[in-house]
Amino acid sequence: MAITATDVNKLRQMTGAGMMDCKKALTEANGDFDAAIDLLRKKGQKVAAKRADREATEGLVLAKVDATGHKGVLVSVNCETDFVAKNADFGAMAETILGVALANLSTDPSALKDLPYGNGLTIGEKLTEQTGVIGEKIDVNYCQAIEAEYVYAYNHPGNRVASLVGLNKAGHEQVAKDVAMQAAAMAPIALDKASVTEEVIAKELEIGKELAIQEGKPAEMAEKIAQGRLNKFFKESTLLAQEFIKDSKLSVEQYVQKADKDLKVVAFKRYGL
Predict the structure, then answer these.
(1) Structure confidence at residue 222 (pLDDT)
(2) Can you count the helices (H) and strands (E) in the chain?
(3) Phi, psi at 24, each rounded to 5°
(4) Any residues with CB less than 8 A from the CB of 253 and at least 6 apart, and which?
(5) Nearest Cα to 210, choosing from 231, 228, 225?
(6) Which pLDDT does position 12 carry in this prediction?
(7) Contacts of 97 by beta carbon, 8 Å cutoff, 6+ apart
(8) How far is CA 221 from CA 1, 38, 204, 209, 218, in A?
(9) Where are any strands of DSSP class E within the chain?
(10) For helices 123-134 and 33-51, what crossing angle results, to 10°?
(11) Which residue, 99, 216, 249, 265, shows the most beta carbons closer than 10 Å to its own?
């Protein structure tokens, strides 16, 4: 049957695929829109398979808190180029995925991709479809969630980094915002000293000791020097011990307790491209 420009445009509006791809799919499907959509999705799956080994290092990092203020999620929806990341359709898709993640408090990208996106597709199927439409690898590389008495979400301009902070008390929005901005800017690896894994501690001690030996220090001194460097590492790399960026005379923990002696940061998440 004859495929009209109106038909092609209608399928393009439905799928976001290119004009020539839509015309080819409609021709192959003899004008059947449902069959044409299936063909385009299969094409997307083929493209996804070809792009599977590519690095999706651009994209959007988004954080959001629910209406109660007790729950928040942080999601990274990724692509290969900054050009695609700035596309309005990609942004709308990322916001939809963020909403699904928030509704389900998702903490695992694989599990998130199994959840419904809409229009009969899972998130994983939508990502595959868009890989076919755009021609770039599209993926969800990260998702985490926080539950606390008060959760604050900070989205840095440009959406290349975002953070979540959980407090044990509500009513301290400015403090939460300041701590979330600190986390976004300074990229701490853990909340406090007690939160640093034994694996990381062992690695830092090993590096500190090796550096001391390379500097010509005797082995018995190298142990003490390594411990001193570890303490410095804790101060620079754990959120509560870091110097507060708005007042270097205070640590983040001191800043929080200056606002309210009973106020505590109980959790944080941070992700950047």
Answers:
(1) 84
(2) 11, 10
(3) -65, -40
(4) 192, 240, 241, 265
(5) 225
(6) 78
(7) 75, 77, 112, 117, 123, 140
(8) 85, 68, 16, 9, 5
(9) 58-65, 71-79, 116-118, 121-122, 139-147, 150-155, 161-167, 243-244, 247-251, 265-272
(10) 80
(11) 265
Q: Which CATH superfamily is domain 5-51 in?
A: Ubiquitin-associated (UBA) domain (1.10.8.10)
- pLDDT at residue 68 tops 70: yes
Cβ neighbours of residue 121 under 8 Å, at least 6 residues apart?
A: 129
Buried b / exposed e over 231-269, threshold 16 CB at 10 Å, is eebbeebbbbbbbbeeeeeebbbebbbeeeeebbbbbbb
Q: Where do you find CATH 1.10.8.10 in the chain?
A: 5-51
Whether residue 218 is predicted with pLDDT greater than 90 in this model: the reply is no
Long-range contact set of residues 87-91: C-beta below 8 Å, sequence gap at least 24: 89/16, 90/60, 90/130, 90/134, 90/138, 91/60
Residues of the chain with CATH 3.30.479.20: 58-147
Q: What is the residue-wise DSSP string for 159-201?
A: SSEEEEEEESSSS-HHHHHHHHHHHHHH--SBSSGGGS-HHHH
Single-letter amino acid, residue 49: A
> At the topology level of CATH, where does 58-147 sit?
Tetrahydropterin Synthase; Chain A (3.30.479)
Residue 141 backbone zone (phi > 0: left; psi -120 to 50: alpha; other: beta) = alpha
**Amino acid, res. 218:** P
What is the pLDDT averaged over residues 145-153?
Answer: 97
